[in-house]
Amino acid sequence: QVHLVEFGGGLVQAGGSLRLSCAASGRTSSSYYMGWFRQAPGKEREFVSSTKWSTGSRYYADSVKGRFTISTDNPKNTLYLQMNYLKPEDTAVYYCASKHSPRGTEYDYWGQGTQVTVSS
Q1: CA nearest neighbour of 97 among 107, 83, 82
Q2: How would you list the strands of the sheet with 68-73, edge to edge?
Q3: CB neighbours of 8 closer than 8 A, spacing ≥ 6?
Q4: Residues 9-64 pLDDT 10s
Q5: Among candidate residues 118, 116, 120, the one with its CA nearest the CA of residue 37
Q6: What is the mean pLDDT of the chain?
Q7: Largest CA distance in the chain
Q8: Which of 98, 84, 87 is nearest to 35 (CA)?
């Protein structure tokens, strides 16, 4: 079992920045990927960014490339998402997730989410 807790959401003006954190505990050693997803009101959950623990490879949705940066602090089992140049359309609940299989696309464990609201 893996427990994920997100921190760092809040209200920010357009053009501002926020950094989200995700503290992981439990069987984190079996995780292959960690990722960030978001869900806006009335919309489906969408992929934002992910990283592979073993290689540090990073992946981003086109909508956040150049503005968001995913990173990890491996000794602390913590995942971060630095969000710059925020836009109102970035408003959503942000979730971190952990994937424990090298294949497929499904993530196995999810945090409770943290609200990010960007005002215009």
Answers
A1: 107
A2: 2-7, 18-26, 78-83, 68-73
A3: 18, 19, 20, 21, 114
A4: 999 999 999 999 999 999 888 888 999 999 999 999 999 999 998 888 999 999 99
A5: 116
A6: 95
A7: 41
A8: 98
